[in-house]
């Protein structure tokens, strides 16, 4: 039976998936994944021609040229070879905006390399648990539900508690802070851009106090504040992909199970953020009456037509929902304020 090669319609349908995979995997791995998961067949030559047409490349010469040479201190701290930063999609804006995104990625690499090589972030059962669940981020997600529903007083009270929790997290210098802060800010942007920027500025200033103003996290958040709203939203998948790559290269014991846990948490948090206030009230009622709570599965994402980071709908994230279903749960916080989270089944 002759091979059925990908048609023009197939390329259009799977464009975003191919680009997302190509930024994190080798071409051979992309081809294998696409054929296995989507019955999408094309030769390496076809892929290269299509990626060239889309103006997608692994790396840019500018990103290699502009990476400063490693200092003596860097050489003694980092045990993994430096790799050039990925290219930036033209959709992220003018060259100046693209360079800011590259700067963010270089700071992210420094943050993970410098801290992880001392063994501080070695994988443990506690570390795995933190990947699977983040109450701090779940609370910020509930804040967005409150604010969308006009429950402003409770929303800002819960947000104030999130800041206190963040202060504790800053002291531990968890590697997940970079992705959690980004995800929290993205959700607040959906309420109001000024609220999103205010959140980032507050966390940035707090990191300068708890850590110091030379710390990579402070520098990273400062660079975030120079991006415009569109660039910040559009580079979410790029940042996640680089974060996963850096964790795999730098953290001892990191493997596919940890990568999957982080992707699953990312997707579930954004699924929670889709819930309307009326649904929140219904879930709270069901929780009090011990009724059956709904599961978090991929169908909710697929039906959503609004703004959502590609990180929540990438193919490798969607494939995990059915394998590891979770139930929405309601957790009581202060004085009757409940927040939504999830428990793995």
TrEMBL record:
<feature type="region of interest" description="Disordered">
    <location>
        <begin position="71"/>
        <end position="92"/>
    </location>
</feature>
<feature type="domain" description="Clr5">
    <location>
        <begin position="8"/>
        <end position="58"/>
    </location>
</feature>
<dbReference type="InterPro" id="IPR025676">
    <property type="entry name" value="Clr5_dom"/>
</dbReference>
<protein>
    <recommendedName>
        <fullName>Clr5 domain-containing protein</fullName>
    </recommendedName>
</protein>
<dbReference type="Pfam" id="PF14420">
    <property type="entry name" value="Clr5"/>
</dbReference>
């Amino acid at each position: 039976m002759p091979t059925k090669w990908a048609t023009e319609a197939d390329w259009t349908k799977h464009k975003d998936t191919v680009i997302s995979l190509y930024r994190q995997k080798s071409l051979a791995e992309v081809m294998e994944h696409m054929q296995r998961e989507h019955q999408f067949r094309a030769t390496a030559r076809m892929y290269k021609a299509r990626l060239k047409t889309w103006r997608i490349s692994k790396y840019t010469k500018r990103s290699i040229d502009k990476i400063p040479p490693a200092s003596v201190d860097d050489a003694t701290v980092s045990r993994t070879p430096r790799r050039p930063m990925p290219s930036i999609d033209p959709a992220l804006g003018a060259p100046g905006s693209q360079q800011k995104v590259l700067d963010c990625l270089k700071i992210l690499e420094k943050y993970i390399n410098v801290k992880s090589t001392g063994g501080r972030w070695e994988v443990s059962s506690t570390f795995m648990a933190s990947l699977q669940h983040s109450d701090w981020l779940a609370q910020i997600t509930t804040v967005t539900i409150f604010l969308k529903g006009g429950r402003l007083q409770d929303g800002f009270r819960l947000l104030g508690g999130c800041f206190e929790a963040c202060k504790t997290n800053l002291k531990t210098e968890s590697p997940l802070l970079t992705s959690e802060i980004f995800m929290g800010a993205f959700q607040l942007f959906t309420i109001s851009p000024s609220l999103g920027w205010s959140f980032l500025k507050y966390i940035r200033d707090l990191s300068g106090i708890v850590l110091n103003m030379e710390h990579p996290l402070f520098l990273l958040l400062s660079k975030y504040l120079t991006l415009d709203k569109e660039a910040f939203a559009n580079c979410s998948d790029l940042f996640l992909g680089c974060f996963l790559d850096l964790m795999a290269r730098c953290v001892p014991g990191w493997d596919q199970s940890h990568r999957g846990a982080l992707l699953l948490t990312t997707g579930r948090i954004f699924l929670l953020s889709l819930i309307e206030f009326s649904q929140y009230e219904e879930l709270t009622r069901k929780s009090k009456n011990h009724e059956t709570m709904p599961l978090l599965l991929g169908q909710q994402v697929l039906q959503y037509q609004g703004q959502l980071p590609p990180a929540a709908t990438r193919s490798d994230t969607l494939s995990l929902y059915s394998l590891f279903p979770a139930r929405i749960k309601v957790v009581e916080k202060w004085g009757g304020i409940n927040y939504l989270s999830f428990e793995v089944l």
